[in-house]
Amino acid sequence: MNGRWVVGNERDSGRQRNDRVSNGAADLVRAREQLLDGGLPRNPRLDAESLRSALVDLYELWLTSKGAELGIVADSGLSVVAVGGLGRREMLPYSDLDLVLLHDNVDPTRVAEVADQLWYPLWDAHIKLDHSVRTVPQALRVAGEDLIAALGMLEARHIAGDVELSNLLIGGVRREWRTGIRTRFDELIAQAHTRWQRSGEIAHRAEPDLKNGRGGLRDIQLLDALSIAQLTDAMPGLGPDVPGGGLKHAHRRLLDVRTELHRVAGRTRDQLRAQDADEIGAALRIGDRFDLARTLSDSARTVSYSVDVGLRTAANALPRRGLARLRRMPVRRPLDEGVVEHGGEVVLARDARPQRDPGLILRVSAASAQTGLPMSATTLNRLSEDAPELREPWPKDALNDLLVLLGSGRGVINAVEALDRTGLWGRLLPEWGAVRDLPPRDAIHTWTVDRHLMETVAYAGALSTRVARPDLLMLGALLHDIGKGRTGDHSVVGAELATQIGRRLGLWPSDVRTLSAIVRYHLLLPDTATRRDLADPETVQLVVDALDGEVQLLELLHTLAEADSLATGPGVWGEWKSSLIGELVRRCRLVMAGDPLPTPEPIAPELLEQAAAGGVHVDLRAGEGKYTHVVTVIAPDAPGLLSDAAGVLALHSLRVLSASVGSEGSSAINTFVVSPKFGDPPDPGLLRQELIRASAGELDLPALLAKREREASGTAPSPYAKAHPKVIWFDGSGPGQAILELRAEDRLGLLSRLSATFEAAEANVRWAKVLTMGSAVVDVFGLDLGPGDGPARREAIEKAVLEVVPRPAPKKPEDADSTGADQIS
């Protein structure tokens, strides 16, 4: 039995209805009005939390009193159970009253009479009521068939009458929920995703749905449901010390805002309208609408992160059945020093010591961003509790790991979000607090300032091959708006902060100056190009003077302007703006001096002496960083030596961070700065032995590298990159000599593959300078192409080079009209 009860066909007269109100719910209505009309000396205004508590007490008092009057008492076979807001003790001013009248072996006529006398006073008092009348078996059957009903009954709470009858329902629903969660989990997740798609993200909506939006109150109820199923903690992964105070504080903030929204609207409302925001912010003593938006963003993102953790934890904890119970436990795949993959998450290795390894935070997050695997909440908590602060200036290893993280494409967004929600990002970058959840003042911006910065980083990663210094591009993208949220021009303030941060990161003084200039002038090109006459020589000279004639800085600002625009919102970057900035940059280049040609590094005298002695020498010594080493290979110069040496290093999981390749007489002198992926480097004697075997053709390096690449990725390695590789040619110092500069994304054994490509093309590598910055490489090769040098030969070599470097995936037909995709490609 369920729905509104009507006894017979007679309609109540107006006097009968008024009598029921006066005899039934008049006191309830009057008391509620007094609570909502606070402000008088004898009736002070209650804050949001106190108002919810008072409403819960008020409704419970009326229901228990009315229940006693109707005979809904202990051992009566009748009970009143609350679900929804009253069941959760979260009664909002105009929320529906959700009640279930339970009965057991009671005469139907008696049940109908009780229901009639319980529901009608509430209806006639204009209190919104969702009601049902059921036996316990009927209620359990509904919960088993209807997921929404089941989620509601999980919040059931006894109010009046036979408590044992209520407990039968409450215990039965929870027991069946736990035993049946495996078959209902997929539907639960699908329902949540549908809701998110329909209602959007609270953190990034101008008028968010506080109840149904992603990061809202429904998501907290979802976490509670998973907790009741014993699949996850109700507050996974976040404690009270994280930014925003953790999930409990976020929950209360969302409830407070929704409570005041009801008071302002005078009715039930879930969507926060812009015109109500100032009044609600003032009532909660938060501030204006911008302050309220910032508070909501922080709370919603905290809830969203907790839901992500909760769903992953729940999925891994689902009970196995049948053959799945016999499946082996997931293996631990090494990702980096102290970092492994386990069960689809990035976790710490068993021998990791976070207390002694401050750079572990960056290696964990970089591995997460590169693989797309989430970081385990337990791992993040452990790092938060145990990892010490990085010393200043940062070690080079830590800076390189930060660059790997920033250069990981869109994977960086989720990785930094997880770090930020758990307090770790603010530890690495204390200046972030001023922009965290900061709402934009301009409606053209889609994101909060901190999210905009990460979106810019992701777009910049896809444009990184346009510049010779992708590391400075990524850092500039990260910091270009860091001055917002403070007093003064954000470009000027940000430049000062960038200087401070650059020194902390351990950048060279010249790079610190460039980074500061990027932040200071990140709006110079778009503002000048769109507001001034480009044909006026003074316009061009203004830009040239501001940048001190530095072509590299101009190149960085040009690329950052595009990434910044793409990250701002739809339609901000287009052909008009692109052409104007491009023309300004072209005119500035004509005035500025060109960049000098790349040149080889000089060879140290002690290496020249060792080369003169002849033979094959492989030396290994500690580098400047904790995890870096220097490998020097001296051997008789021969075709394929560089490819073999680089291939042997790659086979032993030694990543080449930089290299200098040269020759003296008949000897090749190659110096590599390497970093082991994990563990200690191999003995130099072993490297020498394998280099000799490779030179003799006893090692199939291409096949071995392909196998190692598959093992490192756990699956077939993806051939796709974020940015298009770029090859730039310069003429050398003599006939048949050329310089090739490659800008691309790194991959296992890339230097070996490139060297083999040059050998196959009969292009002799006279010297090389190799530099890895995060996940990007800028490699320069001095080539001797011989008398056959010409456009056709260079084009063939370039094509062969591009075959071995990662490239972006081909655009799908549906992406053809995407502005962002078109601009990036």
From TrEMBL:
What are the protein's UniProt keywords? Answer: Hydrolase, Magnesium, Multifunctional enzyme, Nucleotidyltransferase, Repeat, Transferase
Any Pfam family the entry gives? HD
What this protein needs as a cofactor is:
Mg(2+)
Q: What is this protein called?
A: Bifunctional uridylyltransferase/uridylyl-removing enzyme
Which Gene3D superfamilies does the entry mention? cca-adding enzyme, domain 2
Domain comment (free text):
Has four distinct domains: an N-terminal nucleotidyltransferase (NT) domain responsible for UTase activity, a central HD domain that encodes UR activity, and two C-terminal ACT domains that seem to have a role in glutamine sensing.
Q: Could you tell me one molecular function GO term of this UniProt entry?
A: [protein-PII] uridylyltransferase activity
Q: Which gene encodes it?
A: glnD
* GO terms, biological process: regulation of nitrogen utilization
**Entry's EC annotation:** 2.7.7.59, 3.1.4.-
UniProt organism field:
Nocardia bovistercoris
Per its Swiss-Prot or TrEMBL record, what regulates the activity? Uridylyltransferase (UTase) activity is inhibited by glutamine, while glutamine activates uridylyl-removing (UR) activity.
User: Its function?
Assistant: Modifies, by uridylylation and deuridylylation, the PII regulatory proteins (GlnB and homologs), in response to the nitrogen status of the cell that GlnD senses through the glutamine level. Under low glutamine levels, catalyzes the conversion of the PII proteins and UTP to PII-UMP and PPi, while under higher glutamine levels, GlnD hydrolyzes PII-UMP to PII and UMP (deuridylylation). Thus, controls uridylylation state and activity of the PII proteins, and plays an important role in the regulation of nitrogen metabolism.
Region feature Disordered, mapped onto this chain: 1-23, 806-825
What spans are recorded as compositionally biased (Basic and acidic residues)? 9-20
According to the entry, every stretch annotated as the ACT domain falls at: 630-706, 739-818
| Catalytic function, reaction form | [protein-PII]-L-tyrosine + UTP = [protein-PII]-uridylyl-L-tyrosine + diphosphate; [protein-PII]-uridylyl-L-tyrosine + H2O = [protein-PII]-L-tyrosine + UMP + H(+)
